[in-house]
Amino acid sequence: MPLVSNKVTTIERHIIEQQERSNGATGDFSALLRDLTLAFKIINREVGQAGLVDALGATGNVNIQGEIVQKLDAFANTVIYRAMDHGGHLCGMASEEDEGILEIPPHYKRGKYVLLFDPLDGSSNIDVNVSIGTIFSILRRVTPGDGPGTLQDFLQPGFKQVAAGYTIYGPSTMLVYTAGRGVYGFTYDPSVGEFILSHDEIRIPEHGTIYSVNEGNYHKWDERVQRYIDWAKSDDPAHNKKAYSLRYIGSMVADIHRTLLYGGVFLYPADIKSYKGKLRLLYEANPMSFVVEQAGGRARDGGQRVLEIIPEQLHQRTPLIVGSPKNVEEVERFLTL
Ligand code: P6P
Q1: Distance between Cα 123 and ligand 1 center (Å)
Q2: CA angle at residue 20 from 18 to 22, to 5 degrees?
Q3: How far are the Cα atoms of 5, 243, 290, 314 from residue 281, in angstroms, in the given order?
Q4: Which of 179, 199, 219 is the last residue of a domain?
Q5: Is the distance from CB of 90 to CB of 111 less than 8 angstroms?
Q6: Which residue, by CA, sits nearest to atom 14 of ligand 1?
Q7: pLDDT tens, 38-65?
């Protein structure tokens, strides 16, 4: 939680200290995370200036999801690829914005990790100055040799992630990540160009009084989901429960970041239109679920742990129920009725 200390820990220093604690961690992984933070600093600068230059608005292109590609989406996608393609730590990348695997240029050394990312999640909010975010997930390759990464290296269940996190571009820019040994938050100080440790060992509250969902989809949900939502916003004297508050930004990184710090639950259930849910498994649900679980929370798809879903396609979607353990259990009680 918020750290008050005269010790200034940059993310670089933190990663090295973490690496010293973990046996077998190589400098590879630390260098990979450092390269990523450079990309976030560049994206942060552009996002912060979006209102000042003609960066707003759509490019007129459409991505493989059929979504209008916002200029900053395309910019962030390129920045991350170029920041990461030459470090020698990756054998391939995958982005929400691109249909297939992004190969490492042949003249660069390949490494033993793959990177999956959503370059700018919540991009439909860009033009109205609402917080948006970059989400990333890192897996160790599973195929032998040092050739280009294959689909098999990407289609791994979420519990195989070696690191994951997000950067939220909001009133302040913050990087939150886990490497499997707790969750750490770094607030960006533009005056020195560093991410400074501000939230040491984040733990999600055991229970919260906020539920976060797009209630506009109510009519499309399974009736068990409808019954949970009806219960969530009502008093339940028999269980000494007051009505929860609804908070929904429509930018998953912002909604889950609030859930991580304040507690409660974020849901994007399946519905009759999106029968597999809307959110993507590999570069949205898995990394956010890894972070929340590492902070003591739960992440389910309505039937199983998200991190145990065996992926079949790069861009497959999943329903998502993520947050404080007690709140996720409350949702699941209604789903099993
Ligand atoms: P809806 C943003 O486009 C996004 O992918 C997530 O960031 C967000 O949680 C969700 O879609 C919002 O979807 O259908 O509520 O607008």
Answers
A1: 9
A2: 70
A3: 37, 31, 12, 8
A4: 199
A5: yes
A6: 214
A7: 999 999 998 888 777 666 666 777 777 7
Residue of 152, 158, 153, 112 whose CA lies nearest to 135: 158
How far apart are alpha carbons 212 and 278 in whole angstroms? 15
Based on the fold, state whether residues 188 and 230 are members of the same structural domain.
no
Q: Residue 121: CB within 6 Å of ligand 1?
A: yes
Pocket test for ligand 1, best of 214, 217, 255, 259 (most atoms within 8 A of CB): 214
Helix (H, G, I), strand (E, B) or coil at 65: coil
Q: Do residue 189 and residue 41 come from a single domain?
A: yes
| Backbone φ and ψ of 107, nearest 5° | -85, 0
Pair type for strands 132-140 and 113-121: antiparallel
- Residue 259's nearest CA partner among 312, 315, 324 is 324
How many domains are contained in the chain?
A: 2
Amino acid sitting at position 246: L
Asked if pLDDT for residue 319 goes beyond 70, the answer is: yes
* pLDDT tens digits along 220-259: 999 999 999 999 999 999 999 999 999 999 999 999 999 9
Ligand 1 close to Cβ of residue 125 (< 6 A): no
Closest CA to 300 of 330, 258, 257, 263: 330
Dig out the tokens for 27 from the structure.
């400098």
Tokens of 320: 């998502």
Task: Specify the CATH number for the domain of residue 234.
Answer: 3.40.190.80
Select from 199, 227, 252 the last residue of a domain. 199
pTM: 0.94
